[in-house]
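User: Please predict the structure of the protein below. I'd like the answer in structure-token form so I can feed it into my own downstream comparison script.

Assistant: Understood. Taking the following sequence of 213 residues as input:
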Amino acid sequence: MTVTITAFERSPDGGQGLARDTRVRWALEEVGQPYDVRLVSFQAMKEPAHLALHPFGQIPTFEEDGLALFETGAIVLHLAQSRAGLLPDDAKARARAITWIFAALNTVEPPILELFTAKILESDMPWTKERMPLVQDRIRDRMKQLAARLGDADWLDGDFSAGDLMMVSVILRLRSSGILNEYPNLAAYVARGEARAAYKRAFAAQAAINTRA
């Protein structure tokens, strides 16, 4: 069946791989699933046709054989459960890998997004300067915990899984802040994720949209 995802017509990040469709592209590449991309403008994202797929008017969405999904966690989990390559066969290891997907989105990502909100959307607020160290400290608390758990392992729990895909996608957002480099094993972990052939294909596909004339 044909898989179709949606992506920004022009991504706010200019093709740096931070838009959430990159996560879904990466998962599709890891499982060897061909896919089509329907590009949407910011205006089209708020129109009824797109809102029928994503009630919050965001990207990406995923469509296949009458199934429509939104939210990257749900999409990646669906791909991992319906195709081989992103979850281990052992039931307990499989459950742990799924746990890391939720940990990335529910525990690690929120303070990182808070940092970007403070920098981009709230930079002119009078309280931003005082608030910024608090936001950064919350991120460092999470990074310290994650770094301790990863240790000198290549991946979070045995072989690469959908949990690693999601965690790498989340924490690579910290690179521009400099915080990621404070944790060498996490910086190396992100680099290993980005070195995967599937990630490179996903990144290139997303970047190509944003570098075209």
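That's the full token string. The helical segments are 21-30, 48-51, 72-82, 91-121, 128-150, 162-171, 184-195, 197-211.
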